Amino acid sequence: MSLPPGFLDELRTRTSIVQVVGRKVIWDMRKSNQGKGDMWAPCPFHQEKSASFHVDDRKGYYYCFGCHAKGDALSFVRETENVGFMEAVEILAREAGLSMPARDPRAQEKSDHRAQLAEVMEAAVQHYRLMLSTAAGQGARDYLAGRKLGAEAQKRFEIGFAPDQRQGLLQALTAKGFSPELIVEAGLCAKPDDGGAPYDRFRGRIIFPIRDGRGRAISLGGRAMDPNARAKYLNGPETALFDKGRSLYNHGPAREACGKSAALVVCEGYMDVIAMVEAGFGGAVAPLGTAVTEDQLRLLWRIHDEPIIALDGDTAGMRAALRVIDLALPLLEAGKALRFAVMPPGLDPDDLIKAQGVEAMARVLAEAKPMVSLLWQREIEGKVFDSPERRAALDKSLRAAIKRIEDPSIRAHYGEEIKRLRWELFGASRGGAQGGPAGNRRSDFVPGARGAGKRRFVSPNALPETRATLLAAAGDDVSETLREAMILGICARHPALIAQFEAQLEQIALRDALHDRLRHLMLAHAAAPADVIEEKLQALAGADLEKLLALPHLRSAPPIVKRDDTELAQMCLAEEFAKLAAVRAMREEIADAVEDLEGLADEGVTWRLAQAASLRHKAENSKLEDNSDTGEDRAALSARLQAMIDGEIWRKKH
């Protein structure tokens, strides 16, 4: 199957080689410059420890200074996936949302036709540039001068003028040898319904050429000189070259500016973009006569990880911002975000720069709000929440919005931020202390994970030896402290398991200072061989380790005593982590439920408490003796307990 060159060019334009390569390597962020698309990593084609594999996202190529492997995204997929050229094209096309072209023996002919359309479009740009300098363009020049657009700005953006003539462009281009059919197909002229001669689409308008990311002229935009014109702005129609939902005005120059650390700012129109660039904000772009589309949003994220949506401060601008939010929520992923810079009422970026200067525009961009703030503002704007039903309605709408976020990590962080904003709105009416969310009002609790602390009640008349016991020291949390000790004891006696349970060991909240010291030592040497870990623990914390292992419940514990039974130790360690996580998660659910019941009728409270209680019973009933008949082998049970931890089955699933 032969592919038109235009298809491969489009595929390369839409494909980020950093994203393609990033699936196979771990970037060295100390050496890489993500803003410029300049990334380094250990080479995936040969064994090495240093980062000698270089990827240039702007040029679309990779090169290894060690083994000298080089190529583009297609060759990388071919080499790493062990597929042929056409299979690699299909993989990248599927990821980029491109349909593979049908098998067509006339593919080369079609490609040549696109090249002809680009040629006639370039000729039109030059013709309109010439018309601006003629006597007919005097009014347009005066208008541009009034908008503070000098000759340099006009040259940079190739601004032109279309005189109010019915067939001025048609005659000029046909005189250069272009056929009327080709001119019409490029969107420069239109045919009347009665079948007469084609006429110019742009008449009496200032012309703004639209170029793709590679710099090809693909369409035109025109601003009417006549204030009574039916359309103030007119864009060319969609053609084989121009898809307005996949294009951005000033795409190429903005991408280059963002590679040099400029912010990517999305404006509403041509004049806003030009004013921003002239003021020094080179990363300005604009959609082309439509609201931001999903394809444009993905294109923006390819240019910059956090585009700023700069919209007018009027009602229409806010509506546009909210449409972008609804579009972006399902597409969010770690490292890809949006911020919103809201202009002062009645001003667009061009007006703001002219009225208040570049500093005012920079200040607005610096104060751009994260998307969650506008989402919250939309839900509370103009509403009064003076009843439980109204507050419940707010919660319902916010839950529905957050549920649309597919990335679980981002969804969780949005939930936390919404909870914080909700407390700021309702906190004062819930009888809580001033100065923080309800979840932070437990200042008399033992430090640790939220809701994990308990009051310690010890009689003032207790003997010193009584005060020193584990029961008195741990208070109501004695069972959790015993489990913490068991976890660390098993790790100390079976150090080979530390690497396997490294994530759980790192995340667990330890209240005892001795436990915490031992945990950090274990994590610091988790990658070392087992015998080395034992030596390090003995050398650096021998006394603490002896104190831990001397605890009565550890001295006789099978996984501690049977040092050769790694399988038993692995199973018991997974069991202890599961039980500890279940108990603490239940406490968090209860704490959250108490908060919810203080001022919110949450239909999920009962379900959440039942899940937490069920999990605790399940964990408590799973205690095993070494010689017991469990009905399933140790490996299967260990895997099931590990799945309980990884899946956080005590938490409510949305």
From TrEMBL:
Ordered alphabetically, the record's keywords are:
DNA replication, DNA-binding, DNA-directed RNA polymerase, Magnesium, Metal-binding, Nucleotidyltransferase, Primosome, Transcription, Transferase, Zinc, Zinc-finger
- Record protein name field: DNA primase
Listed under subunit, the entry gives: Monomer. Interacts with DnaB.
Question: Which GO-annotated molecular functions does the record name?
Answer: DNA binding; DNA-directed RNA polymerase activity; zinc ion binding
Q: Which gene encodes it?
A: dnaG
Q: Which SUPFAM superfamilies match?
A: DNA primase core, Zinc beta-ribbon
Provide the domain comment: Contains an N-terminal zinc-binding domain, a central core domain that contains the primase activity, and a C-terminal DnaB-binding domain.
Top EC category: transferase
> Gene3D superfamilies, from UniProt?
3.40.1360.10, DNA primase, catalytic core, N-terminal domain, Zinc finger, CHC2-type domain
What is this enzyme's EC?
Answer: 2.7.7.101
Domain Toprim, which positions?
Answer: 262-346
